[in-house]
Amino acid sequence: MSLSEIAFLPATEAAGLIRRRELSPVELLEANQAQYEALNPTLNALVTPCWEQAREQARQAESATGGAGEALGPLHGLTMGIKDLTLTAGLRTTFGSTLYADHVPTEDSLVVSRIKAAGGIIVGKTNTPEFGFGMNTRNAVFGTTSNPWNPALTSGGSSGGSAVGLATGMFALADGTDHGGSLRGPAAFCGVVGFRTSPGRVPAYPTSWVYDTFSVPGPMARTVRDLALLLSVMAGPDPRVPLSIAESGAPLAKAAAGGIDGWRVAWTPDLQGLLTLDHEVRRVTEAAMRRWTDLGCTLEQASPDLSRAVEIIPPLRAMRTAVVRQPQLDRVDQLDNPGLKEYLELAGRLTALDVARAEWGRSQLWQEVSRFFDRFDLLLMPTTQMSPFPKERALPETVGGRPTSELANASLATYAISITTLPAISVPCGFTVDGLPVGLQIVGGWRREAAVLRAAAAFEDAFPWSQQRSPMVREAADRR
Hints:
The protein is of the alpha+beta class. It has a single domain (3-479), classed as Amidase signature (AS) domain (Amidase signature (AS) enzymes). Helix content is 37%, strand content 16%. Strand 4 (138-139) and strand 5 (143-144) form a beta hairpin. Helix 3 (25-43) runs antiparallel to helix 4 (51-63), helix 6 runs parallel beside helix 7 and helix 10 (309-324) crosses helix 11. It is globular. The chain starts with a helix and ends with a helix.
């Protein structure tokens, strides 16, 4: 195999080859590093690389035999990109903020500990907006991450560096976080897979808020089965996080197997008119959704009423921002992110009744979606409301021809799902006339991650859009 072919091996396939000693972890690392050297100067996905440290770990993984008394972890020898919000002991973690430009943690986040224990090899930190706030991955420490399908456009936010690194073969797997859509949006913009799981499925520790149901850590990958493998390692309870779901993550590794014949599937282009969509996103996603009858599903155009989300999101986002940014409240004037400042200012104006009203509305919203999923196994809808926009902008100028001025409205397709706490995955489902990838969002019922993975894999098998590579990736391979 060529270096490019090795770099884009599905993680599940690479893991098998490494176990059979048909592929060396060092070979995989070198293939990923070649992609980094060819494309990262243009795209700026991996902002704090650690290739030499990773190479030593790959050599150690290569020498492991898996013989008597030496168990090989499920991620043995696989390369990982870690979002720059996630703590990595001994490796700079800036949170995309000049306040932490030289910050080197002394401990790993729980997900990093689990990835390392499973044999994963970290090759560096991936770019994110300051403290993960925004639809565009850019910050004052490292600059902007560009889209691999068109470097003049955004990669999305806030897990943009992870999405771009995956789409260009810089690593096999990646982590991210998702509040309003930070795993799903970049995955859609870059043509990869991102999964927001139920709060507590992947515990966040250490954290400023152990009761956080808004932001969750989660996996990213190039294929659904790769993502399921990583999720099986990341998921599982931890007693330090009271919201942890008391189920092992291990069974999720095989959750993507099987068909979905006879499943009851609802689809909506716009959540009963709640979403404003660009024409191309609507065209591509609607065509993809209608194809689910090919998978044996019973398909019905329907959606829950999520109109309350528009009023609920701002106060709850402000409240959550104030909780998790407690350590920075005395330095708000030093933050570079205008949107982050705006929500902290909003938090200062909120009353207890404002937050109570929003939480009451959120409870009503939950009753609505709970009844909806008594009737359906899945809900299909667009992941994003627009295609990637110019990377100089914090938000798209317009969506569906209407001016855009507020983050929550521009990301309502994902944010409205986030506040329900339902699991939702984004998978590639086609391309616009300009050759930009589009994501399909698959939403499951309460804590039904396994069902979402199974359905997403069935769609991916039938319509393998995830195998497409961007022009700059193909050109880099041709130059070798």
